[in-house]
Amino acid sequence: MNLNFDEEKIERFRNQNILTIDYGTKVVGLASFCPGKDPFPMTYGRIIVKDDLQVISELKQVIEDEFFEVLILGLPLFTDGKESEMTQTVRNFGKLLEKEIGIEPILQDETLSSFEAEKRMQEDPRYNFKVDPKKIDEVAACIILEDFFKKHG
Length: 153
Fold this sequence. Notes:
This protein has 153 residues and is an alpha/beta fold. The chain has helices spanning 7-12, 52-66, 85-101, 113-122, 136-149, and strands at 18-22, 27-33, 42-48, 70-75, 106-109.
């Protein structure tokens, strides 16, 4: 897997524990990466959503347990870059997250990450070449994290 990461970004976040959040109204997918320690971003599980405060409570526990220092929050946009209702929902969640946890999340475009996650699962023996609905959100979070570090241009 050639990830073609931006070396400057890798250096900027070297040895920092990063948690990526793929926020959804039913399931929140998570992925983690520590540049300089981990070879590549990895899935980190999921949270079943009851409400935002419950999600934040569970995230707070994960962040404290694993010493995550950087949060990346997937921002859903239309393919033309325009915002949707869900974009505003995620922005509001990000503000609540910062207020409750004290870490401002970095917003990262997550356009088509779920479609990419499905495609990746269909091509990967770890998932028996099938889309696993229980894993799709964390695979999408992993893709968001990879996209954050990819070299653009």
